[in-house]
Amino acid sequence: MVLSGLSPEKVFYYFEEICGIPHGSGNTRALSDYIVSFAKDRGFKYTQDESNNVIIYKDASKGCEKAPVVIIQGHIDMVCEQKPGRNINFKEEGLRLKKEGNIIYAEGTTLGGDDGIAVAYMLAILDSDDIKHPALECVFTSDEEIGLLGATALDCSGLKGRIMLNIDSEEEGQLLVSCAGGATVTCSIPVEYETTQFNHEGFVIKIENASGGHSGVEIAKQGANSAKLLGRVLFCLGKKHDVRLSGMWSGGKDNAIPREATAYVYADCSYDELKKDIDSLEEILKSEYGHTDSELSISVVTADEGKTIKFDDTALQAELHPMTKESSDKAVAALVNFPNGVIKYSQDIENLVQTSLNLGIMSTNVIEGQGEINFSFSVRSSVSTEKYEVIDRLECLSTIFGGNITVSGEYPAWEYRKESRLRDIMCDCYEKLYNEKPQLLAIHAGLECGIFAGKLPGLDCVSYGPDIKDIHTSEEKLYIDSVERTWEYTCKVLEALSDM
Known about the structure:
The protein has helices at 9-19, 29-42, 113-126, 149-153, 226-238, 271-288, 303-306, 325-337, 384-400, 421-434, 448-455, 480-498, and strands at residues 45-48, 54-58, 70-75, 97-100, 103-106, 136-141, 163-166, 174-179, 181-192, 201-208, 213-214, 243-250, 256-257, 261-267, 297-302, 310-311, 314-315, 341-345, 353-367, 370-381, 404-411, 439-443, 460-463, 468-469, 477-479. The protein is an alpha+beta fold. The chain has a six-stranded mixed beta sheet with strand order 1-2-6-3-7-23, with helices on both faces. The two termini are 39 Å apart.
C-alpha cells in the first residue's frame, strides 16, 4: 500500500482502495458495488439505485439520538485525463498512486481527489466507533462531473436529514454557502432569404482571439463576448452600407464565452471600404477591451477567400443567398439587444455575481430557403426568481422578433441563507481549532448542493474540503496534512452537531 502509515489511517486506506477501482464518469458501477459491499459487511441499512447512487444509514452515537439527522454527501465519479503517451485504460485499470513529501498524485493521470476524498471520509466515518455523531445519511452520488446526473436522478424521499455536509470543495479554510442555478435557453428567430439575383459583393467577417473562458467562473471579468461584438460590428456597418446577412455562427458550448464569431454578409461597397470601417471598429473595441482581451481582432475577406474558412471544425454555408433586408435587420437587432453578461451582483456576499447569462452558441440553419438563427444562452442565478426573470426577458425579446424559446438542462440554485445554524457551527468549530475565521464564499456555477436544496425544502448546507490543486488535470495533487486537518475538522463539526 502506497499510503500506509499516513494519518488518518482509515481515510487514506479507503482512498487507496477507491483509486484502485475504475470510476470515471459513466463508469461508476464497480465503485458503487464496492460501497454496497462495505455496507453489507457492517450490517448498515443502504439503498442503491439504477444510476449507481448509494445511501448508507448509520444510527446516532449513544446519547446523541435526539440530535437532528445529518447528511454527508460526495460524488463517486472522477474526471479521467492523462498525459500524452500514458495510455491508461480508465475503464479497466486503477490509478498508480505516488507519494512525495506532503503530496499524493497519480502517475501521469488525474488523481480523482475530486471527489474520491469525500468517499474516503464517509467510509472512514461509517467504519469508526469512536466518533461522536448524530444519525447519519451518507449519500454517494454518481456522474457529477458530466452534469450532476446522479444527484438529479436520486430519489430523496427517504432522506430525513435537513443538514448537509458536502465534501466537494478543494481549498481548506473556505466554506461554500451558495451556488447558482441555471438553464440553457435557445432563442430561435426565423429569417427569409432573397429569391432573386442579388448583385452585392459577398464578404466574411470574423472576430477572433477573445479571451473566452467558463461562463460561470470568468463572467465577472466582463470581457468580450465575440458573438455580441459581432452584432455591434454588423449594426455599425449597416448604418453606412446596405449590409445583408447570409448567416452567422459562434461558439461550441453555451456555458463557454465564445472566443470567435463569424458572419457571411453581402454589402453594396468595395472590400477596401468595408475593411477601412472594420479597422476603425477594431481599434475602438481593442481600446475598450484592452485589459481583458488584448489579442482581440476583427478581419474581413471576400466571400471567395472565405469559402475555405471553417468554424468550429464545421464548414460554413458560404453560398447562401442574402437575407431580405427586413430579416437581416431583425437578426442583427436581436443580437444587439439580447442581454448578456453580468446582470446583478449579490448584496450579501461581496463580489459575487448573483445573476448572469452568456450567449455561447449562435448558428444559422437553412432548409429549402427557410431559415432561422438560433442563439443559445447559459442563464445562471443564485436566486431562482431572478433566473426566471432573465428567461422571461429572452422570451419577450424573441417574441418581438417573431421567434420563440426553448428551455432545457434546468437545475436549481442553492440560495444563500441569511440565517444558518450549520454555517454558524462550522465557523465556530474552525475558529476554535485554528484561531482564525474561515472564508465564506459562493460560486457562480452549479453544484450538487443546488440539486439537493431543490429536493429537500429547508436544507441547511455547507460545502468544504481539503486542499486539492490542479483538479481535472494530470497534475492533480492532494495534500496530506490538509486531509488530516479536514478530518479533524469534520469530526469536530459532527461532535458539535450532536449537541444541537
